[in-house]
Amino acid sequence: MVNGKGRKGTTRLIDVAREAGVSRATASLVMRDSPLVAQETRFKVLAATERLGYVRNMTAARLRSRSGGIVGVIVPNLRNPFFAELFAGIEEALETHGLAVLIGNSRDDRERQADLMRRMCEHGVDGIIFCPAVGTAEDWRAMPSLRRLPCVQVLRHVVETVDYVGVDYRGGMWAAVEALAGLGHRHIAFAIQEAEHSALVERLEGYNAAIEAFGLGAPCIVKIPETFEDMGSRVAALLSATPAPTATICFNDVVAFHLAAAFHDRGLRPGHDHALIGFDDVQAIEVLRPRMASVATHPGEVGRAAARRMLFRIEQPDAPAERIVLPTELVLRPSAAAPSEASSHTISS
User: Confidence band (pLDDT; 50, 70, 90) for 298?
Assistant: First the structure.
């Protein structure tokens, strides 16, 4: 016998089905008063609902009755563990309302993104949650099939007239700079990726504002390649800058992974020779040693919030667009150490 509770203590239809010893599809037919179900089976399912205290989700029922039951999700990089956690949150929230998810990887290419949107529309999706690819223009909804389709921007935003769910990038950067300044660092670098989009702009704004507010040295922006091959020369440039930074905040945890590996290859240790802070605090960061400090953005919760906004948008297509910005949280670990322990080293390439 199951305990009668699904995620967060809510009884789901699948729990009722298991309790009654039938399939979820059969339990669903009973909930809809279908004549296709035998009377004995109907009694078993209804008895299970009573024992478990199941209350039918009428919102989900309305959504399924008026839609195809599929939401499209487009992200720029499926290799980044952040997006796996984001997708898991989206899927979890939509699944409880009986909706399936169709995922696409834009590879941060706006033309591929447009093609994915077109194909998702052809498959009859009820809406699209997407992280806009680099270079996405404000007229991205020019395609006729997209004009009335519910859409939610996540993590990056292009227009104010479409729902957006993201995180407080400025606040996260400010907290990271403040913590390093409190440890005694006076020269703090920011390692970014080449792509330019709203998430980068907001991080830069937070970094620059904090550098100025805490009276630190001039901003030091270092561009990190997408792949590891060219990392050595970039690390050499980072640590040989004048004045040399004693700490680096990374655009995301993937950049932190690459920098930590490049430091290791040169005999340097984050938290001892150079302080290092990632951004996102994905679960995969736990494998790094020393343990990596990071700004937690809680991708699973961002995904659930984006899914909830999509459900609302499907139900209320004409409601005003909303901007939802979730808080970040700095998680300090040994890689963020004081400059007496984390001192910059000039190295050769």
Answer: very high
What is the token pair recorded at 250?
Answer: 């990374």
Tell me, what's the pLDDT at 57?
Answer: 61
Whole-number mean pLDDT of the chain? Answer: 87
Percent of the chain with pLDDT over 90: 55
Surface-to-core class of residue 336, CB atoms within 10 Å of its CB (0-12 exposed, 13-18 middle, 19+ buried): buried
First-to-final CA distance of the chain: 63
Q: Around 105, how many Cα atoms within 13 Å sit in the side-chain half-sphere?
A: 7
Q: Tell me, what DSSP letter sits at residue 272?
A: T
Give dist(CA 257, CA 259) in Å, integer: 6
Query: Among 225, 222, 224, which Cα is nearest to 207's?
Result: 222
Burial of 182 (0-12, 13-18, 19+ CB in 10 A): exposed
Count of helices and strands (H, E) across the chain: 11, 12
Neighbour-count burial for 75-109, b at 16+ CB within 10 Å, e otherwise: bbbeebbbbbbbbebbbbbbbbbbbebbbbbbebe
Specify the amino acid at residue 268: L
Query: What is the residue type of 184?
Result: G
Contact of 255 with 226, CB cutoff 8 Å: no
Q: Give the Cβ contact number of residue 329 at 10 Å.
A: 14
The H-assigned helical ranges of the chain are 13-20, 24-31, 39-52, 58-66, 81-95, 110-122, 169-183, 198-213, 231-239, 253-265, 299-315
Buried b (16+ CB within 10 A) or exposed e, 139-173: ebbeeeebeebbbbbbbbbbbeebbbbbbbbbbbb
Shortest CA distance to 297 belongs to which of 250, 227, 228, 231?
250
Distance CA 234, CA 240 (A): 10
For 320-340, what is each residue's pLDDT tens digit? 999 999 999 999 999 999 986
pTM, entire model: 0.79
Angle between helices 299-315 and 58-66 (to 10 degrees): 70
**Rounded to whole angstroms, how far apart are CA atoms 172 and 330?**
7
**280 CB burial (10 A radius; 0-12, 13-18, 19+):** buried
